[in-house]
Specification:
78 residues; mainly alpha; 2 helices
Length: 78
């Protein structure tokens, strides 16, 4: 029973991590699309700066997910 509870908790954490992963991707996509509509050098520069910051958030989210998977694997004995 405790193992099932840990698995459910891990799935909830992964669900949240996936949500956290999607937020910066959506922001990145919207900002790049907006820069293309505006079409100025400044708009592109801002999009690149913001894109780099969002990429850092993406890396953090993926790292968190990796940690959750490693923990779940250790707990399951794999």
């Amino acid at each position: 029973m405790a193992s099932e509870a840990m698995e459910l908790d891990t799935l909830r954490q992964l669900n949240q991590a996936l949500h956290d992963l999607c937020q910066p991707m959506t922001t990145l996509q919207c900002r790049l699309e907006m820069a293309g509509v505006v079409g100025t050098n400044e708009a592109y520069r801002e999009a690149v700066d913001m894109g780099l910051a969002e990429c850092s958030r993406l890396i953090d989210a993926v790292d968190a997910m990796r940690g959750m998977v490693r923990t779940a694997m250790r707990q399951s004995g794999s």
